[in-house]
């Protein structure tokens, strides 16, 4: 059995672009969630720093994540992201330890 690949992506909007980033991510969410191999996809905004957003993603495997990275929903958003992010998106790949509930 293949272990689920969990991903946390961290995005920092340039000051004044947090609403634009939030709207872009929210609009893309249904597309991300409907991609093959997507088990879960949530976008979260930091309460302490409204310019910081995180996505929590669960994918069937690395191959499903790679397809997501090349899918139209993400590739069409990238030019806008490059303009409004303060720094490149950070992506952390995680494997849940036995007994975890994610």
Structural notes for this entry:
The chain is 37% helix and 28% strand. The chain is of the alpha+beta class and 102 residues long. The protein has one domain (5-94): Alpha-Beta Plaits (2-Layer Sandwich), CATH 3.30.70. Helix 1 (18-33) runs antiparallel to helix 3. The two termini are 16 Å apart.
Provide a quick synopsis of the model:
This protein is 37% helix and 28% strand. The radius of gyration is 14 Å and the shape is globular.
Q: What is the end-to-end distance?
A: 16 Å
| Helix proportion range | 25-40%
Give the tally of β-strands.
4
Low-confidence runs: none
What would CATH call the architecture?
A: 2-Layer Sandwich
Please write out the topology:
Layout: E1 5-12, H1 18-33, E2 38-45, E3 52-59, H2 62-70, H3 72-84, E4 90-94
Antiparallel strand pairs: 1-3, 1-4, 2-3
Helix pairs in contact: 1-3
Keywords, separated by commas or semicolons:
single chain; 102 residues; alpha+beta; Alpha-Beta Plaits; 4-stranded antiparallel beta sheet; 3 helices; 37% helix; 28% strand
């Amino acid at each position: 059995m293949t272990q689920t690949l969990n991903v946390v992506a961290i995005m920092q909007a340039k000051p004044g672009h947090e609403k634009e980033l939030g709207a872009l991510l929210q609009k893309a969410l249904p597309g991300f969630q409907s991609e093959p191999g997507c088990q879960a996809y949530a976008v979260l905004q930091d309460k302490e720093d409204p310019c910081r957003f995180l996505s929590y993603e669960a994918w069937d495997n690395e191959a499903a994540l790679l397809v997501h990275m090349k899918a139209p929903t993400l590739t069409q958003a990238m030019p806008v992201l490059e303009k409004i992010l303060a720094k490149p998106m950070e992506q952390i790949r995680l494997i849940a330890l036995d007994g975890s509930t994610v």
